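Hi there. Long-time user, first ticket. I'm pasting a complex I've been working with (about 863 residues overall). I'd like to know whether the download I got is complete or cut off, because the file seemed smaller than I expected. Thanks.
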Amino acid sequence: MADGSGPGRMTLSGVVLAGLILILIVALLYLFIAQPYWFPTLASEHGGRIDSLFMAVLVVSGIAFVLVQGALGFFIARYGENGGERAAYWHDNPKAEAFLLITTAVILTVLVFMGQRVWASIYFADAPANATIVEITGEQFSWNFHYPGPDGQFGRTDTKLITNTNSIGLDRDDPAAKDDIVTSNVMHAPIGKPVRVRLRSKDVIHSFFLPNFRVKQDAVPGMGIEVWFTPTKAGQYEIACAELCGIAHYRMRAALTVDESQDAFNKWLEEAGK
Amino acid sequence: MSELHAADHAHHEMGFLHKYVFSTDHKIIGIQYLITAMAMAVVGGLLSMLMRYQLAWPQGVSPIMAKIFPVAYNGGLMEPGFYISLVTMHGTIMVFFLFTAVLLGGFGNFLIPLQIGARDMAFPFLNALSYWIFLLSCIVIFSALFVTSGAPMGGWTAYAPLSAVPAAAPGQATGMTLWITAIALFSVSGLMGGLNYITTILTMRTRGMSMMRLPLATWSLLVTSILGLLAFPVLLGAGLLLMFDRMGGTSFFVPAGIIMNQMPIDHSGGHPLLWQHLFWFFGHPEVYIVVLPAMGMASDILSAFCRKPIFSYRMMVYSMVAIAVLSFVVWGHHMFVSGMNPFLGSVFTLTTLLIAVPSAIKTFNWLGTVWGARIRFTPAALFALGFVSMFVSGGLSGVFLGTSAADIQLQDTYFVVAHFHLVMAIAPLFAAFAGIYFWFPKMFGRFMNPTLGKIHFWFTFIGAYCVFFPMHVIGIGGQMRRIYDPTQYMFLQPQQPVNVFISISAFVLGSAQLIFLFNFFFSIFGGRVAERNPWHATTLEWIAPTPPGHGNFGEELPTVHRWPFDYSVPGEREDFVPQTVPATVTAQH
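Hi, the file is complete. Here it is re-exported in full:
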């Protein structure tokens, strides 16, 4: 590449700034390869696909980051002012520009397709028929979980029936509601079986966030939104609200227990229904 | 306006009030915007310091704060509602009242007539009116901090129904009303400015100043003004609808059957997502309203201190236009998990990654500019280089968020906070600092102190990365935005040391800005006197006297003969050729 009339000079400012950029690159590599802090432990089936997609984007953008910041740092260190020496005079290179444009576009197109495969597998696939169905209603500032009980039928709900003790307005006169189970801030699901979640909100927008399951879906008043996922690891997990919903948003927290077996889950349902 | 008449103007003596306060001179209005926005930045910055203190030590009792803010720190602990107000006010002030105001209002006003060789804006009175309405909007938003029931608590995005129903949170009563009022006034002010800039650039360029000879700062301000003219009416309209929902009994954004505090809310038929669509239809172009002028200014400054022409001027212009067009079709990437039809998620992923292409082109072109340069490391040059680094760091994380499936986990976490701060706050901040150090001599006729400027840069560069880079990591760890106390969640507790590190870095970063403020205000009166073209730059503002008088260019307007980037032209005696020098001897590009 055509240089100026001389070699340029390494200046103190240039070297320091380049050094800082180098430290930045090293910090990036440390944080994203050694991963001292990382995603919450994975506990769902589709979450693996999201995590690998993240890693693919990370590799591509990580390489771009190192190359671009590295080149910037190198030029900054290398091309400082040097007496009366002139800079290079060139300002176009259609071939290089076309090459970079097409390369970028191709890489991004590949990422779009990779991403859309994962997106489609999550959102365009219906939940399997054997899924456990839970209706979840967010409110300021708790999560209500509604299970249909042994009959598999959800009882009728009506916002007019909402009281302090009937948080979702379940119509207890409806025969289908007799065996329904409603809990506050406590959710259970059996391992290995899809969970189909119907999200509603009583007041403002909340967001149903299961960090370990790579599930996040807003609960919007006036809408019923469905998502589904399959837990793959038994244990205790946290449910968070991820959308600002008012003063106690920060503690709109619930617990999800993934039971070791369908029996354990049924047993819990029975207990909770008493 | 005839030349003679203009010259007359230049010698006309004006009183202090008319000259510096109720002025219709674009330079004074620009400086008024700049200083008002700096005052707002101090407020917005202090609010973020309180937030960072809270996030690092969420359960620490602070008797000092209890003395200063007896209501907000009842018993020495911050009230959770106050924290949400801080989030809301910090975001609102920084996005609108700092960045939009400083880049469009400040630099837009100051630079456009000077860079195109005009005596003033097309509509000087409208221009002054734009500033005064902006000032009014600043006063309204500032007053929202002192409402007894609480400052607004809806976040800067003001999602309905939280923003539409006053009972949703204490600050959503009077505080939110003031918020909407301020934003509406701000939109009106922005529209007046934008109309003015577009007319001025299109009709008032001096002889020879063809569109493809405009400096990139002016190009970016033109494109940005068009964006603003198309986007701000949507915000204004949405704000008015929100006001109607709150006060007029309408239901644009609130559906039937809402219950708050066991009380039914009397609305029916509205849709909460309508607000999000309207807000982000404005909101995403708004990102580029902030980013584009930063890109334009950084390009010009980079070229001037690299002593080398900008690489691929044409592609710089085309990519700006491409970004502007695409910015209107990407808004849905803010809404991947909002309950919007997931098919739209696919569409918006495609358009979003598409907009990364022109952004990447610009980055390559900045690298091409620095390659083979002879960089003069002034504070302005350092900040322009810092801009490129910050823009790259912030831009690349956008690829994760634009990929809808990866966004599921990252949406509403600190990964998003890291991304948008780097790309639309820190990068534009660096460009604005570069712009201030660069054009300060033209504004005030004096230099800012370069040593203090460099110290300011080093602290700001290191501080900004230490604050915002680790945020990606705690975002990956799942930490949600806008939460008052991350330690409430067990899965977030292990990464609390990172929050402490970020907060300490934030205090350093914040304190470093005092160096800048001192340097700025001290140098207005005590800085070294600057000559006409201290940086040996090529564009027209450096032909004008320092500081330019009323009418900018003395008796005769300059004539333009070449593009704005003739640095280090082989065979020329000097390493720069101003735009006014006729093309005679040199080999032309």
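A couple of notes from our side: Chain A has four helices and ten strands. Strands of chain A lie at 132-139, 142-147, 181-184, 186-190, 195-201, 206-210, 215-219, 225-229, 235-241, 254-259.
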